[in-house]
Amino acid sequence: MKNKKFYINTIGCQMNVYDSEQIAERLQRIGFVMENRVEDADLVIVNTCSIREKAEQKAFSFLGRLAKMKREKPRLMVGVCGCVAQQEGQKIVERMPYVDFVLGTQAIERLPAAIERIERQRCRIVDVNMAQEIQETADIPTCGNPHEISRFVTIMRGCDNYCTYCVVPYVRGRETSREPENIISEIKSLVANGVREITLLGQNVNSYGQKQGLCDFPTLLKRINDVEGLLRLRFTTSHPKDLSDGLIAAFRSMEKLCHHIHLPVQSGSNDVLARMNRRYTREKYLEMVANLREACPEIAITSDIIVGFPGETSEDFEQTKALIRQVEFDSLFAFIYSDRPNAPSGRFKGKVTEKEKKQRLQDVFDLQTGITQKIHASMKGTIKEVLVEGTSKKQVAENQGRAIDAVQWTGRTSGNKIVNFIQNHVSHVDTGIQVGEMVRVRIEKTFPHSLRGSLITGDSGHSLAKGDESYAA
Ligand code: 5AD
Ligand code: SF4
Which ligand is nearest to the CA of 55? Predict the structure, then answer.
């Protein structure tokens, strides 16, 4: 398979981004090379998501494009991986004669063997086998793009929570945590390759290690916090029902742990939360927010909201809006409810009309936009510690064909806000800043989705010690 080119289209969450890296690594090991143009690839894989109807439609519309490509290039190999592959399995090959293989969420390590068999026997393969308990995943450290300073590392797979709207337990299987040693060694090898920020991934990281009697999540964090050369540590997602005091305390005590938590609330109505099987109340959630802010006053809190869950009345929705106003999230992801295969809420009564769902989504969006703008405006004049991720796209385009005397850099604060900042009068000899470096930026202008500022130079500028990231200038 020397020099055959592969292209991967990744749809969905960060877990899929990580899985696509795993797929890429395995393909490279058997001689494939990565290709950025789908038209030039010999193998095209779509790594699918089925969390909401829209994500699934996206996969099928891309597959439609591939059908056309395969008519023009019959030797093109087409594969479907991820959650839709797991969910639909055999049906995909029956409906789509141009698909060569369908590999479910637990079959990534069998991908090289599957490709080899297809090449040899010109057959088609469906592998959606799921173990009751996933064995320790044979994740292999990926080197990825050497310029990337921020990477994801999966610490657990699957989910046992069975929120009634959610397809994840059916397509990703039972919750299984990876051994801490394997996680640490993967992180060490990424850091040795220049990575400075790690985001730990799991459907519910707060229950890490519990089922298998491994260490708990705060202990794992502490061990990663001690990895030399790593500057920042993040994690996602936390289920509020399992948010422990130990984790809250970690925000106070671990200097690399970023001041941000994504804590999906889904609804502000206790009735809806109960029917979602979330196992916490709005009061409990608000208490957790208060505890987090007490431990770490500047913590950024973000969340997920579902609008139009079956039976959600306008009073329920008012409760959600009231909770959003009370918490003042830094940002929110809001989603229109959609029925998912196997998810019990598909059979619940009291469906909300599409029109009403759209209106509620717009209301959440308008409400949150105002809150985010207010939070961003309050940051004007403060100094933030920023991990430099690269030059911003806009500036690169603006600079084409022109001499550069100011470079616009981009990075993120500990609270996960994007900051673009200018470094003036850069000579071609010394560009000053390096990707992966921690710098200080004074925030001067704020936008709904980003902040803009200027670099603080001098002794207090570059490579400062880690510590509190926000204080008035
Ligand atoms: N409909 C709409 N949103 C959903 N989510 C999960 N399942 C559904 C569904 N059936 C949202 C939740 C979750 C996020 C990843 O996706 O808000 O936190
Ligand atoms: Fe889905 Fe709930 Fe598990 Fe999250 S915790 S993946 S919403 S079942």
Answer: 1
Ligand 2 geometric centre to CA of 274 (Å): 14
The rounded Å distance from CA 80 to ligand 1 centre is 22
392 — pLDDT class (breaks 50, 70, 90): confident
pLDDT tier at 468 (50, 70, 90 boundaries)?
very low
pLDDT band at 460 (very low <50, low <70, confident <90, very high): very low
User: Which domains, ranges and CATH numbers included, belong to the chain?
Assistant: 5-127 (3.40.50.12160), 150-377 (3.80.30.20), 382-472 (2.40.50)
Which of 108, 114, 208 is closest to 158 using CA atoms?
208
Tell me: pLDDT of 247 over 70. yes
Q: What is the pTM of this model?
A: 0.91
Instruction: Print burial letters for 41-65: b (CB count within 10 Å at least 16), e (below 16).
Output: bbbbbbbbbbbbeebbebbbebbee
Concatenate the DSSP letters of all residues of 51-92 into one string: SSHHHHHHHHHHHHHHHHHHHH-TT-EEEEEEHHHHHHTHHH
